[in-house]
Amino acid sequence: MSFDARDVGRDIRELAALLGEVLERQTSRDAFDAVEEVRRASIDYRRGAAPSRGPVRERLSGLDPETTRTVARAYAAYFELVNVAEERERVRAIRRGRAEGDLGDGLDRTAEALADVDADTAQQVLEDVRVVPTFTAHPTEARRKTVKAKLRRVAEILRDLDERRLTDAELDQHDRDLESEVETLWSTRQVRPRRPTPTDEARDVRWYLENTLFDVAAEAEAALTDRVVEAHPDLDASDTADAAGTLDFRSWAGSDRDGNPFVTPEVTSETLEAQREAVLDRYVDALTDVRGALSHEGERLDHIDEFEARVAADREAVPVVAGDADERYPEEPYRRAVTAIRARVERVDDLRPGGYDDPDELVASLRALAADLRANGHGTTAAERVDPLVRRVETFGFSLAALDLRDHRENHTEAVADVLAREGLEYEAMDEDERVAVLTESVVDDSIGSLDATDELSETSERVCRRFRALADWHREYGEEAIDAYCISMTEEPSHVLEVLYLADLSGVVDLPDHCGLDVVPLLETASALANARDIFDTLVHNDAYGAALDVRGNLQEVMLGYSDSNKENGPLAAAWDLHRNARRLAEVADDLGVELRLFHGRGGSISRGGGPMNEAMLALPPETATGEIKFTEQGEAIAEKFANPRVAERELEQMLDAQVRARLRALQGNAQAVHEEWEAAMDAAGEGAREAYQDLLETDGFVEFFETATPITVIEDLNMGSRPASRSGERTVEDLRAIPWVFSWTQSRAILPGWFSSASGLDAYLDAGGDIDTLREMYEEWPFFRTTIDHIALSLARTELEIAAEYADLAPEHLREEFFPRIEDEYERAVELVREITGHDELVRREWLSESLQRRNPYVDPLNLLQVDLLSRTHLTEAEERTLRLTVKGIAAGMKNTG
């Protein structure tokens, strides 16, 4: 290695060479030759130098079981290393862009947008914008934590080779370190020996919050403030400080009970405690650094009243510590002040008195310190040493990330029925109006019922009641801000929302009209729920109980939209239009009812489940929904891809902030792209046609059996990927199957059907009804929603390999293969044709880096697919073959950079 500039090609070549050396050393020359021969044969076919994949298949079939496993392991490890190399290349691109002042979308574009408006409008936008990524623990992360740690170390070595000028001795040491990491990676078990527990999942999410986002979130917010000040010099950092708390982080890990019986109150308590401990430790470390920096001599300072008042309050809270600080720092008042602040932070979570009651008190002390520094001419020190900590406290509080509770509405209904049955009321026999009436009466007037445990409660009801009893304890112990939202899956009726309010009232978390410690968040997932949204919210807003709760919560209603199940139910094109149209309807309903709306977008990691670049998604949302506040889920491998590397994480956050600022600015100015009635009519026709084609496929007799035999779903269900079961009831139906394994299965088979199927049928339905291809082209050019939708479909089509998918289809009974696979092929070919016609481009993927990535990966994924098909075709597998099969699943997931 030398001082020459590095690129992704060099990184991959060197990592692959190291992997090859390790493979040969740890196994045998024959195993190494097998891996190489399979690789070359696969590349030859992809390049057109071989007429078929026959040589690949023949070489694989001639391997003994142990060598077969080695081949699978080698390709899986290769993709893990390629992913690290591509991440490093993205960091290079970010650094180049920053150096050249040309990163495209990001805060530079934000500055341009805000420069065209007056300072008051810029300030208003900052006050309105709030971006809330919410991390979930859904089982979509195929890698073990140990493997991720080793890959992170590889990434760190590549960073040093890339960014540091090293001596020859240092280069040699980095070479040895890199070889050691690859060597141990090869020797590390790739597939989890057991399912992760919810506590494991919460720990995993906490790592990203504590080790990456804690630092880069403050940097992103500071960069946004800097851009605003650059655009409007009449505003300064102190003017924008209160408005700069634009990022907030929440989590479902350790608190999402829907479909996961292992998330108990004990797990949630452990999660809350661990998160508090983690964030307080970071504050203590930061304050230690601040104390070390603020060595200012007291005689040179003239303190402001605000600072002296806060110092007095902090000293009074910890008098012994303050006395010790006087002796240690007699001439250094800032160090004395920070010592008291630090001591109060240390006591937040222990039995000693004097700890801060809430984060606002800590922020007040830090703000006073910063103000005093500025008043004494030390503005740079305040900006560099204290302001970042203020931002962190405002963002992460004392909880690191607030938790959302979630459960299925059927469980709440059962619990309410059991609780009221003890009072002689037959809740299950009541109609909707009667249920609303009895719940309202209990919340507003005298509480009916009790959460106390008795034998009269079913197991499900006791579990729900125990959670609400614990919620009151959590509020007392950790503060309401630590766990103040409750999401209701499959909400269909107003009573489903009132049931949670009723249970919270019985727990003491709600005491209307004066107090409501919980946002009740309906999750609208089905077509019927979305269509009935106006009636649901009209009933709730005008309900005496829920209306009072809204008043106490600032008249803000959060509504979650479920992308995953909507896609699985309706197909990608119909689901995209349904969600877009219904988001706009919800905004209109909220406006009509005088309620502020915060949409919570339940997006998956993959495009098939609503994933994709978040900044593009924000700008494609209906302008009516751009209230400034937006909340969305981040899950599975998408969390690692976006937030493991600090520079990538900072860039992701900056793009989110930029998109939301510009969306809010357009909404305030009323200059968002007008959506023509002709466009909406086109989407109505296309969406309905797509829904019919999609549902016709799923409802055709034999489709479930085809899906079960033409994808590795049975293997995926047994993988130790997450703590939550793959299906809701264990039945084999598409409806019962969770969206994640549904998408994961099609991704493994390279069909990626959930990302594009029925889109062509839908567009053809519009065209057959008199529509015009030129209108679709116009929509693509001028309507962000339609352009983003088509681009996502195009990407799914580009990642689809029907030749490989056909290999899986051959595993199905012949009559099912002939029934379904030709339909899939025809839909794919027509979709490719239509996408090209609409976009005007021959290539499905026009991002050069993405096209190169696909070309780089495909020849290596193909052999894993062929190997997986061979193993799936066997009636009985040995234990070694079972392990190899699971390795192929992991390897393909790494190669596709996607599970569910």
Q: What does this protein structure show overall?
A:
This protein has 900 residues and is mostly helical. The strands form 2 sheets. Strands 1-2-3-4-7-8-9-10 form an 8-stranded parallel barrel, surrounded by 7 helices. A hairpin with a 3-residue loop joins strand 5 and strand 6 (515-516). The longest helix has 36 residues, at 65-100.
Features:
eight-stranded parallel β-barrel; 10 strands
Write the layout of secondary structure elements.
Blueprint: H1 8-26, H2 29-46, H3 54-61, H4 65-100, H5 107-115, H6 119-128, E1 130-136, H7 145-163, H8 168-187, H9 198-231, H10 237-241, E2 250-251, H11 265-293, H12 305-317, H13 319-328, H14 333-346, H15 359-375, H16 379-396, E3 402-408, H17 409-421, H18 432-444, H19 459-478, E4 485-489, H20 494-507, E5 510-511, E6 515-516, E7 519-524, H21 527-531, H22 533-541, H23 544-552, E8 556-562, H24 563-570, H25 572-593, E9 596-602, H26 614-620, E10 629-635, H27 637-643, H28 646-669, H29 677-699, H30 703-710, H31 713-717, H32 739-748, H33 759-768, H34 773-782, H35 784-799, H36 802-809, H37 814-839, H38 848-872, H39 879-896
Parallel strand pairs: 1-2, 1-10, 2-3, 3-4, 4-7, 7-8, 8-9, 9-10
Antiparallel strand pairs: 5-6
Summary of the model, kept short:
By secondary structure, this protein is mostly helical.
